[in-house]
TrEMBL record:
Gene Ontology molecular function, alphabetical: transmembrane transporter activity
Pfam families named among the record's database cross-references: Sugar_tr
Family the UniProt entry places it in: Belongs to the major facilitator superfamily. Sugar transporter (TC 2.A.1.1) family.
Domain of life, per lineage: Eukaryota
Subcellular compartments: Cell membrane
Species this chain originates from: Brassicogethes aeneus
Topology within the bilayer: Multi-pass membrane protein
Domain Major facilitator superfamily (MFS) profile: 8-445
GO cellular component: plasma membrane
Transmembrane intervals: 7-27, 59-76, 88-105, 111-132, 144-167, 173-191, 255-278, 293-313, 320-340, 352-374, 394-417, 423-441
The keyword Transmembrane is assigned to this record: yes
Protein's name in the database: Major facilitator superfamily (MFS) profile domain-containing protein
Amino acid sequence: MGKPTSYFVFFATTSANLLTMSAGWAYGWSSIAIPKLNGLIDPDLNPIRKPTTLLQDSWVTSLLHLGSSFSPIFAGKMADQLGRKATLLIFGVVMLIANVITIFADCVEHFYVARFLLGLGCGAVWAVIPMYTAEISEVDNRGFLNCILGILVTFSTLVCFCVGPYVSISTMGYISASPVAIFLVVFGLIVPESPYYYVLKSNEEAARSSFMRLRRVSTNTAEKEVLDIKRSFKLTSGNEASFLDLFRSQNARKALLITAGLMFFQQATGICGILSYLQSFFDDTGSKIPSDISAMAVGLVQFISVSVLSGIVDRFGRRVFLIISASGLIVALSGLGVFFTLKNLQYNLDSLFWVPVFCVMLFITCFAGGIGPLPWTILSEIFPLDVKFYGSSVVTWFCLFFSFVITVCFPIFTAWMGITVCMWFFAGCTTLMLVFVVFYVPETKGKTFEEIQMILSKQ
């Protein structure tokens, strides 16, 4: 793992990613809150007047993903026009408002609004933070710094799984709002704008100042960094591009195919459906291990996997972990498929109660150790600089809209076709992902943005 030139780069990246802690909490929230809202757990503590229905549960869960599918397009444009920092601060305020609504919600419609607004913020997190992180990092620590997003997301999901079952939904709102409030103060007052944004706006003096603050380097070194950025822009078009340039440029089309493919397969593993209904999923397995304990274990495994990955991704590269991740996911999902197939055939599986829990743990380990965080790292690296925000916005929108579809359809399809068919479908998609990574995804480890474009032009 590369060492940051200055600890301030690490501080700036972590400060920006405080928003991802609220996003991670939001993704784990439905697994804990839905049983409380529909009266299955602690009906006396339900903040709304009557238990929610299955359809209402589906909307409360999926509106987060619907909201997150809307914001990447205009968040990317805002990041290019207003700046990365200003855009994140605006959506930070939106996320704070969403959490306040959750705190005081007393009807299901309040949760609809809160989850949608929170989704808008989550979409901006995925669209802008990887871009900002890649732009302030260096070649030898870009992978590690981009993995901070995954670390804090999984950490907050772990906290949600551990704390959520024992507190009220209102208290969960207070916890989720805390990192957002800290972000608005710390990031807003201390952390500078991306130097790439300043170069894009032809403000070289501000770009040099940003580099000097971020990396604690001399004026000469900052000037060299600015010249490198300008040369990278000239390698593409030298001017601000339009949305259509995303499809006119051969390198941009290749980058779009690679990143959209990775995002498709990321969601086609079924991760959002499984995590959103995690406790219910464990109940369906018939395991003797309590579902809330199993959910906590999943959160812990997810956090550890991303943390380990962050320490070694800049040493071994992106492709190797994507291949390992896909291989492990095939085993895990096939194992769940076999288990549910035997369960449907009414085999006695009492002695194998641990198998579904083990398979889910393997699933989470392999997802968090590869296909979960690494597509976001590659997304921040691979697009030509002149169409970077267009490419990032489109791919992020595609990913989050597909996650919305999976989240809405997962409980419906499991009720209609059964969990067995869903597991085998996800296993088949993951097999295709392995083929895609092996034949189409280039290695970006240790490469400058300019070198990555040269690789794409030759591929």
